[in-house]
Design brief:
The protein is of the alpha/beta class and about 625 residues long. It is built from 16 helices and 19 strands. Helices cover about 25% and strands about 20% of the residues. Helix 1 crosses helix 10.
Length: about 625
Amino acid sequence: MSGQAKIKTLSLFSGAGGLDIGFSQAGYEVVGCVEIEPAYCQTLQANSGKGKLLRHAEVNCVDIKEFDPAPYVGVGIECVIGGPPCQTFSAAGRRSGGVLGTIDARGRLFESYCRILKAIRPKVFVFENVYGLPGANGGQPWREICKAFSSLGYSLRAEVVDSADYGVAQHRERLIIVGYLAGVPDFEFPEPTHGPDSSTGLPLVSVYDAISDLQDDAEPYHEFDGLYGHLLSLVPEGLNYSFFTREMGYPKPFFAWRSKFHDFLYKVDQCAPARTIKAQPGKFTGPFHWKNRHFSVQELKRLQSFPDDYEIVGKYGKAVEQIGNSVPPRLAYVIAQSVREQLLRGRTDLTFPVRPAGFESTFRKRQRERTNHYKDVAKAEVAKRFSNVVSIETALVNRSEEYFVRYRGNFTKHFSSSMEEGDLGDVSYAVKERREGANVHIDVGLASVRAKSVKEISIDISGLSKYLIDVDTLECKARISTLDDLFRVWSIIEAVLIKGSQFYTLIDIYGHYANRGDTVRVITSIKARSKSALMRAIEYFGQSSSAGIFMTQEDVAQELKMDQSEVPDLVAELRSLRWDVRTPKTHPTIRQKAILCTYPFPLLSGKAQLERKVDLS
């Protein structure tokens, strides 16, 4: 690179600087960064200036739609890099509310990208995004984005790559688009630098390879706290919560199959690359260290291939977010070097050879092989831990009991064998529970108030035997005063189902709404002389066949025999009763005029903050 002018580069959607690091390491001069998030801009500022990696970078903390590229026009910028936020095309977006693609404002940020390309006219641009972009919404957003770039005179090369194949200690699939103007030589993607698809003979970089010098051999194994914390120490390396499912052979399951996302209780295999690091993990979301703890920021930087001396500004959660949202700098370096040598500073002896004719990546095939491998690991571990147990069976008996449940609010309850006087504000229910083999019958009635009008509710659940050892069906008959009581009826049902099992919540049994099949089925009916729209909605969404699917507001209005203009207010009422009904107002990734009710029952955990997302403006 000596004797050659630096390649002036403008970075868009810079984040914490993952792309910028890789391009700077490859000899590019990042002269400007554009990023909207102040916390990320602080990280970019901390790493720019004299003696820093981003020495010449001017940090523009501004919305890309308001960014004026004029100061960067005519100053010799040859390359533009960056990729807009990916939530509208991502798998996580699909699971939380659906893929909006270019319908959502965030999905149209490529237009700002094109506006800046048109003004600056760099020879080359590098655009990265989630691997699911080409297939999102039938490919329509992908075609629109490609057409927009092509209309500016750029030829395009695009590939989905796995970062692990390029020396990163983490499997992370990203879509990379390289665009170049006419007159610039054609571009070919470099072949993998590591793993079975490479010609180097270098193995994939494992977690331990990346962080071994940061480890203390004397560090004890940790005990993790919280509802599921004690299970972490039982998870074999490379596995997650699914280790505790019947499908993996666990004799007495803690979870239904696909009841959680794959990162839940995920513990890395230290001898292999980690799964993708998430930007906003929950308490029980991995990757976890093999000694049963979260990774440190320094360790996560290594797994994402950040330089040790690159400063991530912010407390732990914000640092993890920035790392998890970044492009791995090592992958960025390989792409940057290939762009440099093929398109901008031509040379024949390439640092990274291009993919040979007929090259076909095997990372998806290897992904399936890893899945099968860890299934074998799980089965072997179960066989070792339960060597004398083929399956656990409970003798099915006929029995009955009566008890009372007193509630203070929704989340504090007390069971007793006799009616107890409670404080003002307490509500008590009389419960008769009868078991006939694998069938459970529950009768719930109000014990603490004398209602003027009583509503009768029936809830029928079937298909439980796949996960619960001694229960297949549950039939609940409840008499309630108001629909507020329905939440507590479901809370009683949950308590009955998890009693005697190793499950912790109803959702653990039912399965996550985005992943479940139709194993557990729910039917809800309300007996009343006349039914309000709210009652009809609870009946409708209280069917498992109506939950977990997207519907138009028009369809919902038709099903519930109401005017479409009344639907938003109905949604607010349902959410006030803790039914997780989602619309574009509550979840921005929901498609316009769509509705999703995630479960056929209310959210029973006090940690589920439905009110926080409601926006009726």
